[in-house]
Design goal:
Order of helices and strands: EEEEEHEEEEEEE
Helix content: under 10%
Low-confidence stretches: 1-24
Strand content: over 45%
Mean pLDDT: 80
Number of strands: 12
Distance between the termini: 31 Å
Strand order of the largest sheet: 4-5-6-7-8-9-12
Radius of gyration: 16 Å
Structural class: mainly beta
Length: 167
Amino acid sequence: MHLKFTLKSTVFATICLFAYNGNTQELKLNFELNPAGDFSVKSNTILGSVKKYKGGYMAENINVPITSLKSGIELRDQHIYKRLEANKFPNVILLKAIATKGKFTGILKVKNMKKKIHGVYKTEGKNLVGSFKLKMSDFKLPEASYLGVGVEDEFELVIKAPLSSVR
């Protein structure tokens, strides 16, 4: 199954986590560049799921290994790994998120820094889809640019994760 996403005219990078029926998973990062352009980074290694919890949903310790992120350009991948300090901090982790009535709050851990997040969600079949905005500067990531082309600081994360059945 192949999915295609269209970036809005606003300046965002979109991180999309997909899990189809709990079997196939993909993390997709779509970055918008300044002054123009975009590129994508993908991972097929996402560890974790969302559980039903007290009339809503809960996720804990959803991990994405940084070195599983691939753009198709080895030099770009190495720059990403270096900026995220993958040798010291090998995973991006959603430590915990609680979702009820279409909204969620949680804690995201990047480079050993924790950031409170909040956003909206909906269920889609056996999956939960949530979205929220962050800035790379929230995690003290160095500005990303190459030959006069930079990556915008603010980005939106869109997560689609499988729902586990819980007694």
